[in-house]
Amino acid sequence: LQLLQPKTVPKRLEASQRKPREPHIPSSLIKEIFRHFAKMPVTRDAFNIVEKCAERYFKQLCIDLEAYTHHAGKKTVEETDLEVLMRRQRLVTDKMPLNVLIERYLPLQYRKLLIPVAVAGNKVIPCK
Amino acid sequence: MAAAGGDEQQMLAQRLKAAVHYTVGCLCQEVGEDKDVQFTKQSIAAISEITFRQCEVFAKDLEMFARHAKRTTVTTEDVKLLARKSNSLLKYITQKSEELASSNMEQKEKKKKKSSAAKGKRTPGEQEAAVTENEDSNM
């Protein structure tokens, strides 16, 4: 064991040196989404700003979700916390339920995971 | 309930609006004296209308927060969550709620002492102070 330990330590250091960058959303994805909704030409500088905004958005999102989760006396973020957040952002309202937004904006494979669907044999997927 | 209650509700809304309008007028006068400006009647009316509508939004949000925490009663925690949008507002509200909590604690202790020592003489001044503080925090 004593012989093994010194070998593993430098390996870990190398691994941490290899990726010092913070995790982020690929800029190509952000570009694609923004271009899809903007429907007009967007300059490269504007895209850079959008990217920075997205980063900030996620930071704020984390802070807010933490507050809402702690508020409910939990330590794990759940779907209800996200729904409260989206209600606060006025994305989800009485006239626009969360499921409608999911149906409208998420691809089918994600929708299947989020919205229960009745299938043959009187089964509901995913079961709650 | 729908037909008869509708009229009653309208009356209630009118009364509430009038109360909000009066308070907004007082506050505007205070601010006006402080900043040496004057508010027109229209601007005061507009502010009171905004306040009234904003209260609807606040009420819905507070209700949602309380329900999210599996409560049926809105607490100061919900109000703090409501004030999270602005940092300075959050600081102010937190400070106020702490003041309120400490004054409540004092009152409880005093009540306990009084009830244990002698049941009588309540100091009306203190109670009034506590009541006005409550009103401040509600605003």
TrEMBL record, chain A:
Alphabetical list of InterPro entries matching this protein: CENP-T, CENP-T/H4_C, Histone-fold
Task: Kindly list the GO CC terms recorded for this protein.
Answer: kinetochore; nucleus
Localization annotation: Chromosome; Nucleus
GO terms (molecular function) for this protein are: DNA binding; protein heterodimerization activity
GO term, biological process aspect, one: chromosome segregation
Nucleus as a keyword of this entry, yes or no, is: yes
Disordered as annotated region, ranges = 1-23
List UniProt keywords, sorted A-Z. Answer: Chromosome, Nucleus
Could you tell me what this protein is called? CENPT protein
Automatic annotation (TrEMBL), chain B:
Gene Ontology terms: biological process: cell division; DNA repair; replication fork processing; resolution of meiotic recombination intermediates
**Which keywords appear in this protein's UniProt record, sorted alphabetically?**
Cell cycle, Cell division, Centromere, Chromosome, DNA damage, DNA repair, DNA-binding, Kinetochore, Mitosis, Nucleus
- Domain of life according to the entry: Eukaryota
* Listed InterPro entries: CENP-S/Mhf1, Histone-fold
Got a GO cellular component term for this one?
kinetochore
Positions with biased composition (Basic residues): 110-122
Query: Where are the residues of the annotated region Disordered?
Result: 99-139
**UniProt entry tagged with the keyword Transferase:** no
Q: Name one GO molecular function term.
A: protein heterodimerization activity
List the Pfam families hit by this protein, alphabetically.
Answer: CENP-S
Q: Which SUPFAM superfamilies match?
A: Histone-fold
| TM spans (from-to) | none
Q: Where in the cell is it found?
A: Chromosome, Centromere, Kinetochore; Nucleus
Family to which the UniProt record says this protein belongs: Belongs to the TAF9 family. CENP-S/MHF1 subfamily.
Q: What is this protein called?
A: Centromere protein S
